Amino acid sequence: MKAMIFAAGLGTRLKPFTDSHPKALAEVCGRPMLGIVIERLKSFGIDEIVVNVHHFADQIVDYLHDNNDFGVEIHISDETPKLLDTGGGILAARGWLDGNEPFIVHNADILTDIDLAVMLSVAKSVDALAALLVSLRTTRRYLLFDSQSMMLKGWTNVETDQFRPEGFKMSDTYRRLAFGGVHIIFPAIFPYLAAYAESKKEDCHTTGSIPKFSIMDFYIDNCSTLPIMGYQSPKPYRWHDIGKPDALEAAQRDFENDNF
Question: CATH code at 240?
Fold first, then answer.
């Protein structure tokens, strides 16, 4: 089974560490996050992983080489010439991810012990193009899901009272949930993703290369016509976004007794 790890980000919230290192190599309990995520994915049967790189890309490549790619097949999706964001990054990796089986997409700055096997099983049982890990966590921006089907219906920023997509109408049947940085995506999404990318080129009056765009923008802009589901774990799990120093410290306290 395949996976993609987003490791290309600039990590501006984690300065000063990211002034000289990629965020993916920030350590929790003495181990770089990238290695922790890879080992977690391996434990669920992942044996082929795409890692996108941009910020201090050479450090990530060297880290993987020094660890013999953790015993799995690693592909480097090189975004050093141009950072493509999450949507462009997935599309750029299509050649490795396309096929007949779903693949996992995991942010390198998300530390969690969520049971991915259960999430994958649920995703396969539903006719959807993607399943997004979501929870009741407090944030400024929420995804809105139909409470019965758990299909994505929209997005809101509670500070600005903004809603998307265009023409969105709020309903009492919608649930407001926070995204957790883990997706299960089915390759059937790629034609839609490619068409969306082309529309972004037209908006920017550019041709040729893949444009920079967010996978979340794709989900939100297309949720009225494409089945994008939310997944809430039936069991408790630990979850940390280590993108800020205080959050990194909280993750270390939570996982200090774990043997990664």
Answer: 3.90.550.10
How distant, in Å, are the alpha carbons of 33, 90, 128, 188, 200 from that of 222? 32, 16, 13, 14, 14
Amino acid at 161: D
- Domain range for 13 is 2-255
Residue 155 corresponds to which tokens in the numbers above? 């997005």
In a domain, 260, yes or no: no
**Number of other CB atoms surrounding residue 203 within 10 Å:** 10
122 near 235, Cβ under 8 Å?
A: no
* Per-residue confidence band for 90, with pLDDT thresholds at 50, 70 and 90: very high
Of 34, 67, 29, the closest CA to residue 52 belongs to 34
104: burial class by Cβ within 10 Å (0-12, 13-18, 19+)?
Answer: buried
Strand partners, 138: none
Sequence-distant (≥ 6) Cβ neighbours of residue 30 within 8 angstroms: none
pTM: 0.94
| Closest of 109, 105, 116, 75 to residue 189, by C-alpha | 105
Residue 165 lies in a domain: yes
Q: How many CB atoms lie within 10 A of CB 211?
A: 22
Task: Supply φ then ψ for residue 203, to 5 degrees.
Answer: -60, -35
* 60 found inside a domain: yes
Q: What is the pLDDT of residues 13-37, one digit of tens each?
A: 999 999 999 999 999 999 999 999 9
Asked if the structure places residue 70 within a domain, the reply is yes
**Total number of domains constituting the chain:** 1
CB under 8 Å, gap of 24 or more: what pairs does 240-243 form?
A: 240/110, 240/111, 240/112, 241/107, 241/109, 241/110, 241/181, 242/14, 242/26, 242/28, 242/33, 242/109, 242/110, 242/111, 243/11, 243/13, 243/14, 243/23, 243/109
- The C-alpha atoms of residue 72 and residue 3 are separated, in whole angstroms, by 11
